[in-house]
Design a protein that fits this description.
- The complex is a heterodimer of chains A (115) and B (113).
- Chain A is mainly beta.
- Chain A contains no helices and eleven strands.
- Chain A is globular, with a radius of gyration of 13 Å.
- Chain A starts with a strand and ends with a strand.
- Chain B has no helices and nine strands.
- The chains are: A mainly beta (115), B mainly beta (113).
């Protein structure tokens, strides 16, 4: 069964450093998403991406964040200058199309620890 | 997307059926009812969705009340692997939020051997 993959599984970085989280969505999917989950809290939407453009973003997704699809397979989330509060699990997801009834397939996540 | 209400936690015994309730009294006529679950230390996983009629798939069944103000996710025989947080999410058929999922706190299901 096709699946979304994410690398690395765990990233430790110092405050103020840039990090890039990588995702390989399912190959025939067209919509891509990033979510995050701070330890013990809800899963929160960050951004959706379609046709090489951001479709929607949440209030969390400020100027420190950016997304890119650098080639035909990877989808990346960059945090320019990490803060302690960016420590969280980051999940990538993809779907064939937007909206219901298309389900989103999630990757296993990258645990980001900012020290 | 309209709001849903779920119990914080539920317990079940292995091999017994589990009924996970969700209230969505402000559901609109174009809202689909989706269920996702999140196993420990994993990303969310799609379970099932429906609009008006009851639905079955290999993972679960979804029973939707006639007035659509509530629904129940049914796991027919709980296994230890079903221990997870279960999220009931409403999504407008016209994708008014461009497809992003809005997660609540969900119901944490514990399964006892």
């Amino acid at each position: 069964e096709p699946e979304v993959t994410q690398t690395p599984s765990h990233q430790v970085t110092q405050m103020g450093q840039e990090v890039i989280l990588r995702c390989v969505p399912i190959s025939n999917h067209l919509y891509f998403y990033w979510y995050r989950q701070i330890l013990g809290q809800k899963v929160e939407f960050l951004v959706s991406f379609y046709n090489n453009e951001i479709s929607e973003k949440s209030e969390i997704f400020d100027d420190q964040f950016s997304v890119e699809r650098p080639d035909g397979s990877n989808f990346t989330l960059k945090i320019r200058s990490t803060k302690l509060e960016d420590s969280a699990m980051y999940f990538c997801a993809s779907s064939e199309a937007s909206g219901t009834p298309y389900e989103q397939y999630f990757g296993p996540g990258t645990r980001l620890t900012v020290t | 997307d309209a709001k849903t209400t779920q119990p914080n936690s539920m317990e079940s015994n292995e091999e017994e059926p589990v009924h996970l309730p969700c209230n969505h009294s402000t559901i609109s006529g174009t809202d689909y009812i989706h269920w996702y679950r999140q196993l420990p230390s994993q990303g969310p996983e799609y379970v099932i969705h429906g609009l008006t009629s009851n639905v079955n798939n290999r993972m679960a069944s979804l029973a939707i009340a006639e007035d659509r103000k509530s629904s129940t996710l049914i796991l027919h025989r709980a296994t230890l692997r079903d221990a997870a947080v279960y999220y009931c999410i409403l999504r407008d058929v016209y994708g008014g939020s461009q497809g992003n999922l809005i997660f609540g706190k969900g119901t944490k299901l514990s399964v006892k051997p």
